[in-house]
Amino acid sequence: MLNLYEELGESSRQAILGALRFGPQRVSEIVAVTGLRQPNVSNHLARMREKGLVVAQKVGREVFYTLASPEIVAAVQAVFGIRLEPETKVDLGGSALTFARSAIEGDESSCSVILDSCLRARASLTQIYEQVLGIAMGHIGEWYKIGAIDEAQEHMASFITERMMAKTMQMTPPVRRSEHTAVLGCAPGSRHVIGLRMIADYLRTQGWSTQFLGADVPIAAFVGIVKNQNPTLVLISIGSTESVDSTAELVRALVPLVHGRIVVGGAIISQAEEDLRMAGASFVARSLSEFSNEILPQFETA
Questions:
Q1: What is the model's pTM?
Q2: Most CB contacts within 10 A, which of 51, 83, 144, 197?
Protein backbone atom coordinates (compact mmCIF):
# COMPACT_ATOMS: atom_id res chain seq x y z
CA MET A 1 0.00 0.00 0.00
CA LEU A 2 3.03 2.31 0.20
CA ASN A 3 2.68 3.26 -3.48
CA LEU A 4 -0.95 4.19 -2.91
CA TYR A 5 -0.24 6.53 -0.02
CA GLU A 6 2.58 8.15 -1.98
CA GLU A 7 0.15 8.89 -4.81
CA LEU A 8 -2.49 10.19 -2.41
CA GLY A 9 0.09 12.66 -1.17
CA GLU A 10 0.13 14.44 -4.55
CA SER A 11 -2.95 16.61 -5.10
CA SER A 12 -3.64 15.79 -8.77
CA ARG A 13 -3.29 12.03 -8.37
CA GLN A 14 -5.31 12.21 -5.16
CA ALA A 15 -8.12 13.86 -7.13
CA ILE A 16 -7.98 11.14 -9.80
CA LEU A 17 -8.03 8.34 -7.23
CA GLY A 18 -10.93 10.10 -5.55
CA ALA A 19 -12.86 10.14 -8.82
CA LEU A 20 -12.22 6.44 -9.35
CA ARG A 21 -13.73 5.55 -5.97
CA PHE A 22 -17.12 6.00 -7.66
CA GLY A 23 -16.39 3.15 -10.10
CA PRO A 24 -15.16 2.82 -13.70
CA GLN A 25 -14.46 6.15 -15.41
CA ARG A 26 -13.42 7.34 -18.86
CA VAL A 27 -10.61 9.89 -19.10
CA SER A 28 -13.17 12.52 -20.15
CA GLU A 29 -15.22 11.81 -17.02
CA ILE A 30 -12.16 12.12 -14.79
CA VAL A 31 -11.31 15.42 -16.46
CA ALA A 32 -14.84 16.69 -15.80
CA VAL A 33 -14.79 15.64 -12.14
CA THR A 34 -11.28 16.82 -11.28
CA GLY A 35 -10.90 19.88 -13.50
CA LEU A 36 -7.46 18.65 -14.58
CA ARG A 37 -6.28 18.84 -18.17
CA GLN A 38 -6.68 15.72 -20.29
CA PRO A 39 -2.94 15.21 -21.03
CA ASN A 40 -2.15 15.47 -17.32
CA VAL A 41 -4.87 12.98 -16.41
CA SER A 42 -3.58 10.53 -19.01
CA ASN A 43 -0.01 10.86 -17.73
CA HIS A 44 -1.05 10.35 -14.11
CA LEU A 45 -3.12 7.30 -15.05
CA ALA A 46 -0.17 5.79 -16.92
CA ARG A 47 2.03 6.27 -13.86
CA MET A 48 -0.51 4.69 -11.54
CA ARG A 49 -1.03 1.77 -13.93
CA GLU A 50 2.71 1.08 -13.79
CA LYS A 51 2.50 1.02 -10.00
CA GLY A 52 -0.41 -1.43 -10.07
CA LEU A 53 -2.89 0.99 -8.51
CA VAL A 54 -5.16 1.44 -11.53
CA VAL A 55 -6.23 -0.88 -14.35
CA ALA A 56 -7.61 -0.05 -17.79
CA GLN A 57 -10.39 -2.08 -19.41
CA LYS A 58 -11.49 -1.64 -23.02
CA VAL A 59 -15.20 -2.01 -23.74
CA GLY A 60 -15.89 -1.56 -27.43
CA ARG A 61 -14.12 1.66 -28.40
CA GLU A 62 -14.14 3.04 -24.88
CA VAL A 63 -11.41 2.66 -22.24
CA PHE A 64 -12.48 2.68 -18.61
CA TYR A 65 -10.16 3.04 -15.62
CA THR A 66 -10.79 1.44 -12.24
CA LEU A 67 -8.95 0.98 -8.99
CA ALA A 68 -6.94 -2.22 -9.28
CA SER A 69 -8.09 -4.27 -6.28
CA PRO A 70 -10.65 -4.42 -3.48
CA GLU A 71 -7.93 -3.45 -1.00
CA ILE A 72 -7.15 -0.27 -2.94
CA VAL A 73 -10.86 0.58 -3.21
CA ALA A 74 -11.24 0.22 0.56
CA ALA A 75 -8.15 2.31 1.28
CA VAL A 76 -9.19 5.14 -1.03
CA GLN A 77 -12.71 5.20 0.37
CA ALA A 78 -11.30 5.28 3.88
CA VAL A 79 -9.12 8.27 3.01
CA PHE A 80 -12.03 10.18 1.50
CA GLY A 81 -14.48 8.98 4.13
CA ILE A 82 -17.36 8.79 1.66
CA ARG A 83 -19.82 5.97 1.23
CA LEU A 84 -20.87 5.27 -2.34
CA GLU A 85 -24.46 6.16 -3.14
CA PRO A 86 -26.30 6.09 -6.46
CA GLU A 87 -25.91 9.40 -8.28
CA THR A 88 -28.92 9.01 -10.55
CA LYS A 89 -32.04 6.89 -10.68
CA VAL A 90 -33.13 4.53 -13.41
CA ASP A 91 -36.36 2.60 -13.95
CA LEU A 92 -35.02 -0.94 -13.99
CA GLY A 93 -38.37 -2.52 -14.87
CA GLY A 94 -38.89 -0.18 -17.81
CA SER A 95 -35.30 -0.72 -18.85
CA ALA A 96 -35.89 -4.49 -18.95
CA LEU A 97 -38.81 -4.21 -21.36
CA THR A 98 -37.00 -1.73 -23.60
CA PHE A 99 -33.90 -3.95 -23.55
CA ALA A 100 -35.97 -6.98 -24.58
CA ARG A 101 -37.57 -5.14 -27.49
CA SER A 102 -34.19 -3.86 -28.68
CA ALA A 103 -32.52 -7.26 -28.30
CA ILE A 104 -35.03 -9.14 -30.47
CA GLU A 105 -34.45 -6.52 -33.17
CA GLY A 106 -30.70 -7.08 -32.98
CA ASP A 107 -30.16 -3.49 -31.81
CA GLU A 108 -27.09 -4.06 -29.67
CA SER A 109 -26.26 -0.34 -29.56
CA SER A 110 -29.56 0.49 -27.86
CA CYS A 111 -29.07 -2.37 -25.42
CA SER A 112 -25.62 -1.01 -24.60
CA VAL A 113 -27.07 2.46 -23.95
CA ILE A 114 -29.58 0.94 -21.52
CA LEU A 115 -26.81 -0.90 -19.72
CA ASP A 116 -24.69 2.25 -19.53
CA SER A 117 -27.58 4.11 -17.89
CA CYS A 118 -27.82 1.38 -15.25
CA LEU A 119 -24.09 1.50 -14.60
CA ARG A 120 -24.14 5.30 -14.29
CA ALA A 121 -26.95 4.94 -11.74
CA ARG A 122 -24.61 2.66 -9.73
CA ALA A 123 -26.96 -0.31 -10.09
CA SER A 124 -25.24 -3.40 -8.72
CA LEU A 125 -24.42 -6.45 -10.80
CA THR A 126 -27.20 -8.33 -9.02
CA GLN A 127 -29.71 -5.60 -9.83
CA ILE A 128 -28.66 -5.43 -13.48
CA TYR A 129 -28.67 -9.19 -13.94
CA GLU A 130 -31.91 -9.91 -12.10
CA GLN A 131 -34.04 -6.80 -12.63
CA VAL A 132 -32.96 -5.88 -16.17
CA LEU A 133 -31.32 -8.72 -18.10
CA GLY A 134 -33.13 -11.55 -16.33
CA ILE A 135 -36.56 -9.95 -16.69
CA ALA A 136 -35.77 -9.06 -20.31
CA MET A 137 -34.96 -12.70 -21.06
CA GLY A 138 -38.21 -13.66 -19.34
CA HIS A 139 -40.13 -11.40 -21.73
CA ILE A 140 -38.25 -12.85 -24.68
CA GLY A 141 -38.97 -16.41 -23.55
CA GLU A 142 -42.68 -15.67 -23.30
CA TRP A 143 -42.73 -14.02 -26.73
CA TYR A 144 -41.02 -17.09 -28.17
CA LYS A 145 -43.51 -19.47 -26.53
CA ILE A 146 -46.53 -17.69 -28.05
CA GLY A 147 -44.89 -17.42 -31.48
CA ALA A 148 -44.46 -13.64 -31.41
CA ILE A 149 -40.76 -14.06 -32.27
CA ASP A 150 -38.88 -16.85 -34.01
CA GLU A 151 -35.91 -18.94 -32.91
CA ALA A 152 -33.40 -16.73 -34.72
CA GLN A 153 -34.61 -13.67 -32.81
CA GLU A 154 -34.47 -15.56 -29.52
CA HIS A 155 -30.89 -16.66 -30.22
CA MET A 156 -29.89 -13.16 -31.29
CA ALA A 157 -31.34 -11.67 -28.12
CA SER A 158 -29.56 -14.27 -25.98
CA PHE A 159 -26.25 -13.47 -27.67
CA ILE A 160 -26.70 -9.73 -27.07
CA THR A 161 -27.60 -10.40 -23.44
CA GLU A 162 -24.42 -12.42 -22.94
CA ARG A 163 -22.37 -9.58 -24.42
CA MET A 164 -24.01 -7.11 -22.04
CA MET A 165 -23.23 -9.46 -19.16
CA ALA A 166 -19.57 -9.46 -20.20
CA LYS A 167 -19.62 -5.67 -20.27
CA THR A 168 -21.17 -5.55 -16.80
CA MET A 169 -18.48 -7.86 -15.46
CA GLN A 170 -15.75 -5.68 -16.90
CA MET A 171 -17.20 -2.78 -14.93
CA THR A 172 -17.54 -4.75 -11.67
CA PRO A 173 -14.31 -5.33 -9.73
CA PRO A 174 -14.24 -8.13 -7.14
CA VAL A 175 -15.14 -6.94 -3.65
CA ARG A 176 -13.07 -9.52 -1.81
CA ARG A 177 -10.74 -12.47 -2.25
CA SER A 178 -11.82 -16.05 -1.50
CA GLU A 179 -10.31 -19.51 -1.48
CA HIS A 180 -13.59 -21.09 -2.60
CA THR A 181 -14.17 -22.80 -5.96
CA ALA A 182 -17.41 -23.59 -7.77
CA VAL A 183 -18.11 -25.84 -10.75
CA LEU A 184 -21.15 -24.87 -12.83
CA GLY A 185 -22.79 -26.64 -15.75
CA CYS A 186 -25.83 -28.35 -17.24
CA ALA A 187 -26.73 -32.02 -17.57
CA PRO A 188 -27.03 -33.68 -20.99
CA GLY A 189 -29.90 -32.18 -22.96
CA SER A 190 -30.06 -28.98 -20.90
CA ARG A 191 -28.99 -25.91 -22.87
CA HIS A 192 -30.19 -22.87 -20.92
CA VAL A 193 -27.08 -21.28 -19.44
CA ILE A 194 -27.65 -17.53 -19.09
CA GLY A 195 -28.97 -17.81 -15.52
CA LEU A 196 -26.08 -20.10 -14.61
CA ARG A 197 -23.62 -17.68 -16.17
CA MET A 198 -25.11 -14.92 -14.02
CA ILE A 199 -24.41 -16.92 -10.88
CA ALA A 200 -20.88 -17.70 -12.07
CA ASP A 201 -20.26 -14.00 -12.65
CA TYR A 202 -21.64 -13.11 -9.23
CA LEU A 203 -19.37 -15.67 -7.58
CA ARG A 204 -16.39 -14.14 -9.37
CA THR A 205 -17.25 -10.71 -7.95
CA GLN A 206 -17.16 -12.35 -4.52
CA GLY A 207 -13.65 -13.60 -5.21
CA TRP A 208 -14.56 -17.22 -5.96
CA SER A 209 -12.78 -19.26 -8.61
CA THR A 210 -15.31 -20.66 -11.08
CA GLN A 211 -15.16 -23.53 -13.55
CA PHE A 212 -18.01 -22.88 -16.02
CA LEU A 213 -18.73 -26.00 -18.06
CA GLY A 214 -21.71 -24.62 -19.97
CA ALA A 215 -24.57 -26.49 -21.63
CA ASP A 216 -25.19 -30.16 -22.34
CA VAL A 217 -22.23 -31.63 -20.41
CA PRO A 218 -21.83 -35.44 -20.47
CA ILE A 219 -22.22 -36.85 -16.98
CA ALA A 220 -18.85 -38.62 -17.00
CA ALA A 221 -17.09 -35.41 -18.03
CA PHE A 222 -18.90 -33.38 -15.36
CA VAL A 223 -17.99 -35.94 -12.70
CA GLY A 224 -14.36 -35.93 -13.85
CA ILE A 225 -14.05 -32.16 -13.44
CA VAL A 226 -15.60 -32.28 -9.98
CA LYS A 227 -13.19 -35.04 -8.91
CA ASN A 228 -10.23 -32.97 -10.08
CA GLN A 229 -11.39 -29.64 -8.64
CA ASN A 230 -12.95 -30.75 -5.31
CA PRO A 231 -15.10 -27.59 -5.34
CA THR A 232 -16.86 -25.92 -2.45
CA LEU A 233 -20.08 -25.92 -4.49
CA VAL A 234 -21.49 -27.54 -7.61
CA LEU A 235 -24.24 -25.61 -9.38
CA ILE A 236 -26.46 -27.17 -12.03
CA SER A 237 -29.00 -25.40 -14.25
CA ILE A 238 -32.17 -27.03 -15.53
CA GLY A 239 -34.21 -25.21 -18.14
CA SER A 240 -36.88 -27.64 -19.32
CA THR A 241 -38.91 -30.59 -18.11
CA GLU A 242 -37.23 -32.78 -20.74
CA SER A 243 -33.94 -32.61 -18.83
CA VAL A 244 -35.27 -33.49 -15.36
CA ASP A 245 -34.20 -37.14 -15.63
CA SER A 246 -30.68 -36.39 -16.86
CA THR A 247 -30.24 -33.68 -14.23
CA ALA A 248 -31.36 -36.06 -11.48
CA GLU A 249 -28.93 -38.67 -12.81
CA LEU A 250 -26.12 -36.11 -12.71
CA VAL A 251 -26.99 -35.14 -9.14
CA ARG A 252 -26.93 -38.79 -8.05
CA ALA A 253 -23.50 -39.23 -9.66
CA LEU A 254 -22.16 -36.17 -7.83
CA VAL A 255 -23.56 -36.82 -4.35
CA PRO A 256 -20.71 -39.17 -3.27
CA LEU A 257 -18.17 -36.52 -4.30
CA VAL A 258 -19.72 -33.33 -2.89
CA HIS A 259 -22.46 -34.44 -0.51
CA GLY A 260 -24.29 -31.40 0.87
CA ARG A 261 -22.82 -29.01 -1.67
CA ILE A 262 -25.07 -29.30 -4.75
CA VAL A 263 -27.28 -26.39 -5.82
CA VAL A 264 -29.80 -26.75 -8.65
CA GLY A 265 -31.72 -23.87 -10.21
CA GLY A 266 -33.38 -22.80 -13.41
CA ALA A 267 -36.61 -21.90 -15.13
CA ILE A 268 -38.55 -25.03 -14.12
CA ILE A 269 -36.98 -25.68 -10.73
CA SER A 270 -40.32 -25.39 -8.92
CA GLN A 271 -41.71 -28.25 -11.02
CA ALA A 272 -38.62 -30.43 -10.59
CA GLU A 273 -37.66 -29.61 -6.99
CA GLU A 274 -39.04 -32.78 -5.39
CA ASP A 275 -37.33 -35.11 -7.89
CA LEU A 276 -34.00 -33.30 -7.61
CA ARG A 277 -34.03 -33.20 -3.82
CA MET A 278 -34.76 -36.94 -3.79
CA ALA A 279 -31.76 -37.41 -6.09
CA GLY A 280 -29.57 -35.61 -3.55
CA ALA A 281 -29.62 -31.88 -4.36
CA SER A 282 -28.85 -29.94 -1.19
CA PHE A 283 -30.34 -26.61 -2.25
CA VAL A 284 -32.56 -25.17 -4.97
CA ALA A 285 -32.22 -21.56 -6.13
CA ARG A 286 -35.08 -19.81 -7.89
CA SER A 287 -33.18 -16.60 -8.47
CA LEU A 288 -29.78 -14.96 -8.23
CA SER A 289 -30.87 -12.99 -5.16
CA GLU A 290 -32.07 -16.15 -3.40
CA PHE A 291 -28.72 -17.78 -4.10
CA SER A 292 -26.65 -14.75 -3.04
CA ASN A 293 -28.68 -13.88 0.07
CA GLU A 294 -29.74 -17.27 1.44
CA ILE A 295 -27.50 -20.04 0.10
CA LEU A 296 -24.04 -18.59 -0.50
CA PRO A 297 -23.54 -17.12 3.02
CA GLN A 298 -23.80 -20.62 4.49
CA PHE A 299 -20.60 -21.59 2.68
CA GLU A 300 -18.65 -18.35 2.99
CA THR A 301 -18.94 -18.44 6.79
CA ALA A 302 -18.24 -22.16 7.10
A1: 0.71
A2: 197
